[in-house]
Each structure stands twice: as structure tokens, then as C-alpha cells.
Amino acid sequence: MRWLRGLIRKVKIRHLLLMVMGLLSAVAISALVWNGKNVLEQHRSAGRLALNSELAAKSLLVTTELAVERGLTYTLLATTGAPGVEALQQLQQLRKRVDQRMETFQKVLKRHYSPNGKAHLEQGYRILKRHQVQLERLRKDIDGVFAGEIDNNVSMQWFGLVTWIIEDVSRLQREIMSTNHK
Known about the structure:
By secondary structure, this protein is mainly alpha-helical. It contains five helices and no strands. The chain is rod-shaped and about 110 Å long. The two termini are 56 Å apart.
């Protein structure tokens, strides 16, 4: 205890104030670093949430438009005789909307990396690209049915494959969302 008393007598108030200020500065810097980490994590979470919302909206638009195209095409296939010019124009406009929605969804997938920084969303882009090629092939077959060049039995294939594409796009979106939250 004597050495403590001796130390206290030797320490001047100026030095004591400098030590206290240094200690308080170190505590303040530590608090800033800790708070900065929390803010950065909140920013990452907000980025994941924004990407998930964007992907959900885009995939919902794709699946909705695909379902409408599937229904209209199936209805036209089920009617007797060739569809009218107005119905075919409506189908062409619907196909354009589906293609635009798919392209927009593909751009989002290609543009973004997953927020956890581990995997590019390129796989989802490739899946959608493959579906778009399948859809174009199916549409050519359906146009052949409308022109009377192909048998009407293609309609069952159309309905099943387009339903599968719709389910796969929904699955892809759910998979991306669950991956981003890990």
C-alpha cells in the first residue's frame, strides 16, 4: 500500500486527467466500432429484404402472366375450329407481356449477387433462359395447331409443361429467398 500512496503523490493532476481522457476516448472508439458493425449488419439485412421483395414481385408477375397465357391458349385449343383473328392478336400481346416479364426477371437475377456474397444468381438466370427456350418451342407447336399443321394432342403437353414452368419459377424464387436469409 505504501507504493500506491507514493504513486498517487507522484502523479500530477494533469497526468491523471490525461489518463482518464485516454480511457474515455478508448471506450468511445470501441462503442463506435461496435455500433458500426451493427449498422453494417442492418444495412445488409435491408439489402436482402429489398432483393427478396424485388424477386418476389418479378416472379409473381412472370407466373401470373404465364398462367393467363396458359389459360387463354388452352381455351383456344379447346374451342372447335380455328380461333378468330382478335383472339390470336390477344394471345400475341399476352405472349409479348410474358416475354417482357421474363426478361425483366432475368435482368434482376443477372444483375444481383446474393446478399450473403457467396453465390451469383446466375443459376436462376440460366434456368429462366432454358424455360424461355422451351416456351418458344411450345408456342411454335401451338401456332402449328392453330394453323392446322400439327395434331391437337399437343394441348396436353402445353398445359403440363407451362404448369411445370410456373411451378419452377415459383420454386426458384422461394429457393433464392431462403438462401439469402442464411
